[in-house]
Amino acid sequence: MTPITGLDLTGFTEREPGVWTDERGLVLSVHFFPLVPDLPASLEEPDRLRFGLAQGAAGAGGGLIEAVLGAMDGVPAVRQLIKVPRPTGHGQVFLGSWTVPKAGCSTVLKAQAAEGATTGMREAMVMAQVGPADYFRPHPYAPGLGGGLPYHVGDHEQWDAQFPDHPLTLVRAALNRITPTVTLDDRFKILPPFGTPAAPTASAAEPRPEKRGWFGRRRNQG
Predict the structure, then answer these.
(1) Model-level pTM greater than 0.85?
(2) Residue 61, Cβ neighbours under 10 Å: how many?
């Protein structure tokens, strides 16, 4: 139950309300959080925002691959790509999300996929092409950042075409395809933006997901 009223779910099968999977193991989900967003800065402070997001990902044992400012259905948003260690076994899980923050709530579109039995092939092949000295680099948003998973060029989008079945490629491609098809509830779109001096008080315009049922399941199945 989110303010997302439509999105193209071609190739996905619903597993539970708001969660879908495809045949390659990609998981797509939509979320609504009726709380002040926990972003480290507003979208009007991109450098501070990216620095805080990089710190947060590293502090949780993962790594921020990129954070890009943009929009969903014309509403300002931030896209993150994050990698985290798999909870069990070897390899990594790649998470991609668009967060649309408002003063007192947010909605999120998320895609994720995990490495399978074969891990590290993309990293090894990219390192062989660029050389070890140019492979690992300081984090562009937080030079000197320690902890978490290392930042390296193997995660850059330029390599996706060489590794079409890699989970990072799948996550990035899914967000690129689906994001332009997303529509948001007009009541959510007009809420005060995140970063305003004071959070809005409860009113008839403020979302109450338990009563309103934002997600109307209007979607294009292709």
Answers:
(1) yes
(2) 11
